[in-house]
């Protein structure tokens, strides 16, 4: 009989993702009694920590969103932390995992248990880590008694070729069936709602095409810098960190054709089809930037190159904007402006569909410049869907104003909105791969950017500087103008 016992092994447990997102998400699942009763968490990283230090560090980020009662919360915290353990070692060292295996055995004895490995480490160490795990024998277990699954974070590779190589090499340790390629944006509630919005509301489908939609803008901005993550970020940059995965996934869900059925296979087939329909990005349609210190040198808003761990001559981009075109009947000619950046003017993630100008000019001089209608799906900072419409301002004169039909999640729905990692980690435990990236989907999304990324490296075009806290580099406005997109 299959075991319910579960060991969750997090590589990179000292890092940002593990501490800020994974461990809090696991705690939330535990507090909702959604994890198997008998589970353990084993953190692994190079930083030397005792179990007690790891627990203290972990406790700092745990919140009782699901159990606001203070006594209940304290009890859950204590029980959860007691199941957290830590081992340190080099990611590529088989011996280190033998020590981890010994720690697992000390906790769980000879019992059979399911094993969930989570690679919360920079992609440059995915492969040595996976190989050493394989060599240690930790990943080998008898499927009749327990499963082994591995979650791999993005970016998967640096380009199409390295992504394919990584897939082949990882395949020697973990089968495709065992591999969960995560893009946490797919676990966000409002992103999961995209298909429902489009296909469960009959009013949208007739408008969802080039005849009605003038352009689509997918924006992702953070108002902070790299927050101590130079070790990972400087090797990759924002295009590989965010555009290749989160933004292209949002684009695919926005632009795909209706799937035949709402199951994982059909949805992913349609995502692959639309990704393959995107014309490969031309370098001239890609703007890159790097943040410089805020103009007045405000403390705490340093230039990227002055961040701890970043080389003083780094050419890594912290901003990227591109215009993509989809070669199919639905979208031919519609520009998709995708933009992402760190240290910008605000924190925002949204999809904005802008409709064509109103062709009916019956309001004449009373409303010479009616703004276009827009449908906005806001992912962050607060989930919302709103439709911008023109409205008559109440009064005896006929005046118009743009207004919003507004669905704010936090006002409309009671209860806690689950974090993306809660939903996705639970899916891994359940073995549901619907919200994970399929191999052909990954390849198709690299193909969109691959040529431009190689050309960018070959021409050594430097990223344009922009001030920390600004709207991005000047090239942004030029790119928008070149595609007839107003600011
Ligand atoms: P971190 O920079 O925090 O790195 C995680 C851990 O890896 C560090 O604590 C460090 O642990 C180790 N590490 C860092 N740099 C190196 C290096 N050059 N060589 C070997 N080990 C290193 O990164 P994140 O936790 O932010 O990201 C990890 C992965 O998760 C990335 O693939 C990222 O794309 C992905 N991700 C991150 C998100 C986030 O919000 N942070 C969200 C979504 C995905 P130690 O020194 O103790 O070994
Ligand atoms: C990660 C990126 O994938 O997403 C980070 O590596 C970024 O650079 C993070 O900060 C943002 O996630 P969220 O869910 O806060 O938008």
What does this structure look like?
The protein has helices at about 15-30, 50-60, 70-80, 95-110, 125-135, 160-170, 190, 195-200, 230-255, 265-275, 410, 420-430, 440-460, 475-480; strands spanning about 5-10, 40-45, 85-90, 115-120, 150, 180, 215-220, 285-290, 320-325, 335-340, 350-355, 375-380, 385-390, 400-410, 465. Helix 4 packs across helix 5, helix 9 crosses helix 13 (about 440-460) and helix 10 packs parallel to helix 13. Helix content is about 35%, strand content about 20%. Strand 13 (about 385-390) and strand 14 form a beta hairpin. The chain has 2 domains: about 5-155, NAD(P)-binding Rossmann-like Domain (Rossmann fold), CATH 3.40.50; about 185-480, Dihydrodipicolinate Reductase, domain 2 (2-Layer Sandwich). It contains 14 helices and 15 strands. The longest helix has 26 residues, at about 230-255. The strands form 2 sheets. A 9-stranded mixed β-sheet has the order 14-13-12-11-7-10-9-8-15, sandwiched between helices. The mean pLDDT is about 95. With about 475 residues, it is α/β, with parallel strands linked by helices. The protein is globular, with a radius of gyration of 24 Å. It binds NADPH dihydro-nicotinamide-adenine-dinucleotide phosphate and 6-O-phosphono-beta-D-glucopyranose (BG6). 6-O-phosphono-beta-D-glucopyranose binds near residues 242 and 349.
């Amino acid at each position: 009989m299959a075991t319910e016992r579960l060991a969750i092994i997090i590589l990179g447990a000292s890092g940002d993702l593990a501490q800020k997102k994974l461990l809090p998400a696991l705690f939330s699942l535990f507090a909702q009694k959604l994890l198997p009763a008998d589970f353990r968490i084993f953190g692994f990283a190079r930083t030397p920590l005792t179990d007690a230090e790891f627990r203290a560090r972990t406790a700092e980020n745990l919140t009782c969103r699901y159990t606001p009662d203070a006594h209940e919360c304290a009890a859950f915290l204590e029980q959860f932390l007691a199941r957290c353990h830590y081992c340190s070692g080099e990611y590529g060292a088989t011996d280190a995992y033998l020590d981890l295996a010994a720690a697992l055995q000390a906790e769980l004895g000879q019992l059979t248990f399911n094993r969930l490995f989570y690679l919360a480490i920079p992609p440059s160490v995915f492969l040595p880590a996976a190989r050493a795990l394989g060599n240690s024998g930790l990943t080998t277990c008898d499927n009749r008694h327990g499963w082994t699954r591995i979650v791999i974070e993005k970016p998967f590779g640096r380009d199409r070729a390295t992504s394919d190589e990584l897939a082949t090499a990882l395949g020697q340790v973990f089968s495709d069936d065992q591999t969960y390629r995560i893009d946490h944006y797919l676990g966000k509630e409002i992103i999961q709602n995209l298909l429902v919005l489009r296909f469960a509301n009959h009013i949208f489908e007739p408008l969802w095409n080039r005849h009605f939609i003038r352009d689509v803008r997918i924006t992702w901005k953070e108002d902070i810098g790299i927050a101590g993550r130079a070790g990972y970020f400087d090797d990759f940059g924002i295009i590989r960190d965010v555009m290749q995965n989160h933004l292209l996934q949002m684009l695919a869900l926005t632009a795909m054709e209706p799937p035949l059925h709402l199951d994982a296979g059909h949805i992913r087939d349609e995502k692959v089809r639309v990704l393959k329909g995107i014309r490969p990005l031309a370098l001239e349609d890609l703007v890159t930037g790097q943040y410089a210190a805020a103009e007045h040198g405000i403390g705490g808003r340093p230039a990227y190159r002055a961040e701890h761990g970043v080389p003083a001559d780094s050419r890594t981009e912290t901003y990227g904007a591109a215009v993509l075109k989809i070669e199919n009947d639905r979208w031919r000619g519609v520009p998709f402006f995708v933009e992402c950046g760190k240290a910008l003017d605000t924190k925002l993630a949204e999809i904005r569909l802008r409709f064509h100008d109103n062709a009916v000019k019956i309001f004449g001089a009373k409303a010479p410049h009616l703004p276009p209608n827009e449908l906005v799906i806001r992912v962050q900072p607060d989930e919302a869907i709103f439709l911008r419409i023109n409205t008559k301002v109440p009064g005896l004169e006929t005046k118009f104003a743009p207004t919003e039909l507004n669905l704010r999640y936090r006002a409309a729905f009671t209860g806690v909105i689950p974090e993306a990692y809660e939903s996705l980690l639970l899916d891994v435990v359940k073995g549901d791969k619907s919200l994970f990236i399929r191999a052909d989907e990954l390849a198709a999304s690299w193909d969109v950017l691959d040529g431009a990324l190689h050309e960018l490296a070959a021409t050594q075009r430097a990223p344009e500087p922009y001030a920390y806290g600004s709207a991005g580099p000047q090239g942004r406005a030029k790119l928008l103008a070149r595609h007839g997109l107003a600011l």
